[in-house]
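[Automated response] Your request has been received and processed.

Submitted sequence:
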Amino acid sequence: MSQGQTLASYIDEDIFGVEKMIYVLKVDVISFIQMNEIGQAVITAYISNLYKLAKDQEWKLMIAFMDPSRTFHDPKSRDEAGRVQL
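Generated structure:
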């Protein structure tokens, strides 16, 4: 992967209930490897990989994943429900 290159990944509808494409930058991959702060795209790619492993191992019915792009922090909200987008 050269500087500025992007990895594109298709996210199947089975994972989050909606299909989508995500794009991960080289700097995001480096941050993940260095255990620094990462963004939603890296988390989504990681969850996608976990889903594929769970599906291969037939654990699919035992676990569920939440799309990280559907959450956000609202500093004014006092409860957890106020921080989750529905």
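Summary generated for your ticket: Residues 6-83 form one domain. Strands lie at 6-11, 20-25.
If you did not submit this request, please reply to this message.
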